[in-house]
Design a protein that fits this description.
The structure holds two protein chains of two kinds.
Chain A: H1 2-19, H2 22-36, E1 61-62, H3 82-107, H4 121-130, E2 136-138, H5 144-149, H6 154-162, E3 185-186, H7 195-209, E4 215-220, H8 227-239, E5 243-249, E6 252-253, E7 256-257, H9 271-274, E8 277-282, H10 286-300, E9 306-311, H11 330-339, H12 342-353, H13 358-381, H14 400-416
Parallel strand pairs in A: 1-8, 2-3, 2-4, 4-5, 5-9, 8-9
Antiparallel strand pairs in A: 6-7
Helix pairs in contact in A: 3-4, 3-12, 3-13, 4-10, 6-13, 7-8
Chain B: H1 2-13, E1 38-42, H2 43-57, E2 62-65, H3 80-84, E3 89-91, H4 96-108, E4 113-117, H5 127-133, H6 137-140, E5 150-156, H7 171-175, E6 181-183, H8 188-200, E7 205-210, H9 213-216, E8 218-222, E9 234-237, E10 242-246, H10 249-265, E11 269-273, E12 276-278, H11 282-292, E13 295-302, H12 307-318, E14 328-332, H13 342-345, H14 349-361
Parallel strand pairs in B: 2-3, 2-4, 4-5, 5-7, 6-7, 10-11, 10-13, 13-14
Antiparallel strand pairs in B: 1-8, 6-12, 9-11
Helix pairs in contact in B: 2-8, 4-5, 10-14, 11-12
Classes of the chains: A alpha/beta, B alpha/beta.
Protein name (chain A): 2-oxoisovalerate dehydrogenase subunit alpha
Organism (chain A): Panagrolaimus sp. JU765
Protein name (chain B): Transketolase-like pyrimidine-binding domain-containing protein
């Protein structure tokens, strides 16, 4: 009993001392700041005041050039060589031309599905150019330009869309679900945002390897609403991995405008809450995207995860299964096309430099059209992998169950093969 | 350790229910003598030992999840961080979809990922990552990318008082997804060998650990690094009158019922531990049923669409001419897992015993 009374009297004395002085406040502020708030300095306030997110100024949109393609502040010119800049332009227009041809071919029923990149060419090429070719890319599906920049063979785009025997993906997935080990581009999958926490895991592996590689993961403003985005931002910040989160905010997730997607300051507005270095850029300004991604890569390589929100506009339909006039006005699309087409903005810059001309453009586009059509027709002629291919790669090995089922299909086709489109398969 | 041994002996020697604890009576197995020197380990320690070996063998291997750094809420990762470092054994934020996605990403980069989901009941937020991503990674990329180096460990099964969210057996939720391997060990020897197989296997694996056995199950576990084959069932009790199939905790319940049937009815049951639900060992079960003519499958999970349904359907096709009675399924009822009514929900040895009896009298 005596011991207990002594104990409590000590606690009581100590509590009194804390309570009656600033020592208690200091103690708590130190604890909250260092242990709860990642060393952010917190203080007490006697003002009962909520943070009104609607009143705060939105995060600024970083730009390098204006819509006429002129540098607003010349110090922001990355001074890239003519060769690099012309390649950027060629890649953007190649992507645009291929999109038009493949979109039309879907309309003619020659491929089953397609998704264009109209209006987002600059954010794809600008960011891809600022990364190292060994950096690992995880994409959503509207990042074909990144593969174009990395030299993914033209024929492969067509092979994948046809799912023919030459497709790297062996004809397993829908069109535009590209992937390439050689180009460090992880195969696209349809479920939105699943790639984001995966990208964090790969970035963690690179950190442990000390390989100097980083991961760049692309996603749309709609995808950012998925729980996996939350998981990824949070894991990246707590595990301190070399990653760049690149959000393409193009105003729509299929038919859903961003006003129905989030209530805050866009996607960039979320970044600081997770402890991510964050920037918002003009996604139609190739130079701004390039500069921001270059700087982000530099931070990421020091295990400081970064979030980039590129503001752009989805000029095309969501996909070939969508008619966007059902939910947005033709006028809105026309205004964006007329007032800020990223390819034209960049072309103005090149033309003023004397590095590109209307004749160059005509000749180049006509060459691209010819090559794409040729590749497309070639892909159409290539047969698909044999029916039994459907059992491969489920597991690293063929399980006894799958062996049985493979035999079952073989026996069935021996009897009923004439009812199946075998002529299209090897 | 001493404490564990006491619990173990209590469970063995007392037949009536222990308060707030499952009534399971663990029946220890013997390891293959060829595996050499053994040590007395409970299942928790054997899993710890397996992860220890995995981390030592493979410098890329990482162990991560909620609360694994201090040793885990079940103490399975005890001491691993001290030995292998904070970058290899670490806590993640509390987010199962993140844990699974992060693990896939590690594996895609070629690193060995050993992820822990604290309870099988909480694996569902990760369901999308497991089913749509992990399982399909190799297939959808034409084998350009894979996440074969991913193993997800999760606690599993009834524990006496776990109610709805600390008792579930979700294996059948995953066996319907091609591309995954699903494993449940029955004790420490199998836990170590099968977990090491999962970690080494070039496919994503889910390793469900019967949590009621963590401390109550003690066996002489081989000290060395060894693996047990995935996709292979084990006949733990040979018999000639009926075939009984189960896995995890339920294997012991079924085994006990077999002994009871022998004692009370003179029926000699063959008891088989399935061990692996995907891919599963059709041949061992079919060969046994061809011999006995009768099959009973038992699991804790609800009966409708439980994995016993898959076994029953396959065996009736494979062994139609051998079957002398309908295939019997003794499983959990089609309800959520209840708290106070757990003793009546579970497929107890008496329910299995009665099932054997009905099957023999058919």
């Amino acid at each position: 009993m005596i011991v207990r009374r002594l104990f409590w009297s000590n606690v009581w004395k100590r509590n009194l001392r804390l309570y009656s002085s600033a020592v208690g406040d200091d103690f708590r502020l130190e604890e909250f700041s260092s242990k709860y708030l990642g060393h952010r300095k917190a203080k007490f306030t006697e003002n009962l005041e909520f943070i009104d997110s609607g009143n705060a100024e939105a995060i600024s949109i970083y730009r390098a050039t204006n819509t006429a393609g002129d540098f607003v502040d010349p110090s922001q010119d990355p001074n890239l060589s003519k060769d690099v800049l012309v390649k950027m332009y060629r890649d953007m227009t190649f992507l645009n031309t291929m999109d038009k041809i493949l979109y039309d071919s879907q309309r003619q029923g020659r491929i089953s599905f397609y998704m264009t990149n109209f209006g987002e060419e600059a954010n794809q090429i600008g960011s891809a150019a600022a990364l190292e070719s060994t950096d690992l890319i995880y994409g959503q599906y509207r990042e074909t330009g990144v593969l174009v920049w990395r030299g993914f063979p033209m024929q492969q785009f067509m092979n994948q869309c046809y799912g023919n025997a030459l497709d790297y993906g062996k004809g397993k997935q829908m069109p535009v679900h590209y992937g390439s080990l050689e180009h460090n581009f992880v195969t696209i999958s349809s479920p939105l945002t699943t790639q984001m926490p995966q990208a964090v895991g790969s970035a963690y592996a690179f950190k442990r390897e000390g390989s100097k590689r980083i991961v760049c993961v692309y996603f749309g403003d709609g995808a950012a609403s998925e729980g996996d985005a939350h998981a990824a931002f949070n894991f990246a910040a707590t595990l301190k991995v070399p990653i760049v989160f690149f959000c393409r905010n193009n105003g729509y997730a299929i038919s859903t405008p961003t006003t129905e997607q989030y209530g805050g300051d866009g996607i960039a507005g979320k970044g600081p809450g997770y402890g991510l270095h964050t920037i918002r850029v003009d996604g139609n300004d190739l130079f701004a995207v390039y500069n921001a991604t270059k700087a982000a890569r530099n931070l990421a390589s020091q295990n400081i995860p970064v979030l980039i929100e590129a503001m752009t506009y989805r000029l095309g339909h969501h996909s070939t299964s969508d008619d966007s006039s059902a939910y947005r006005s033709k006028d809105e699309v026309e205004q964006w096309t007329a007032k800020d087409y990223p390819i034209l903005r960049f072309r103005s810059y090149l033309e003023k430099k004397g590095w590109w001309s209307a004749e160059d453009d005509k000749a180049w586009i006509s060459e691209v059209r010819k090559n794409v059509l040729k590749a497309f027709n070639e892909a159409e002629k290539v047969k698909k992998l044999p029916p039994e291919e459907l059992f491969n790669d489920v597991y690293a090995e063929l399980t006894p169950n799958l062996k049985r089922q493979k035999e079952e299909l073989k026996r069935h086709l021996e009897k009923y093969g004439k009812h199946y489109p075998l002529e299209n398969f090897q | 350790m001493a404490h564990c041994r006491v619990l173990f002996q209590t469970a063995k020697s007392v037949s009536q229910p222990i308060r707030f604890s499952s009534t399971i009576s663990f029946i220890p197995s013997k390891a293959d003598p060829a595996l050499g020197e053994t040590a007395k380990l409970n299942m928790c320690q054997s899993i710890n030992n397996a992860m220890h070996i995995a981390l030592e063998n493979d410098k890329s291997a990482c162990v991560f999840g909620e609360d694994v750094a201090f040793g885990g809420v079940f103490r399975c990762s005890l001491g691993l961080q001290d030995k292998f470092g904070k970058d290899r054994v670490f806590n993640t934020p509390l987010c199962e979809q993140g844990i699974a996605g992060f693990g896939i990403g590690l594996a895609v980069a070629g690193h060995t990922a050993i992820a822990e989901i604290q309870f099988g009941d909480y694996i569902f937020p990760a369901y999308d990552q497991i089913v749509n991503e992990a399982a399909k990674y190799r297939y959808r990329s034409g084998n350009l990318f894979n996440c074969g180096k991913l193993t997800i460990r999760a606690t599993w099964g009834a524990v006496g008082h776990g109610a709805l969210y600390h008792s579930q057996s979700p294996e059948a939720n995953f066996t319907h997804t091609p591309g995954l391997k699903i494993v449940v060990p029955r004790g420490p020897i199998q836990a170590k060998g099968l977990l090491l197989s999962c970690i080494n296997d070039p496919n994503p694996c889910i390793f469900f650990e019967p949590k009621v056995l963590y401390r109550t199950a003690v066996e002489e576990v081989p000290v060395k690094d060894y693996t047990l084959p995935l996709g292979k069932a084990e006949i733990v009790r040979p018999g000639s009158d009926a075939t009984l199939v189960a896995w995890g905790t339920q294997l012991h319940v079924t085994w006990e019922a077999a002994e009871l049937a022998k004692k009370e009815l003179g029926i000699d049951c063959e008891v088989i531990d399935l061990q692996c639900m995907a891919p599963w060992d059709v041949d061992t079960i079919a060969n046994s049923v061809a011999k006995t003519g009768r099959l009973l499958v038992s699991h804790e999970a609800p009966v409708t669409s439980g994995f016993a349904a898959e076994i029953a359907a396959t065996i009736q096709r494979e062994c139609f001419l051998n079957l002398e009675a309908p295939i019997m399924r003794i499983a959990g009822f089609d309800t959520p897992f209840p708290h106070t009514h757990e003793p009546f929900y579970l497929p107890t040895k008496w329910r299995v015993f009665d099932g054997i009896k009905q099957m023999m009298e058919y």
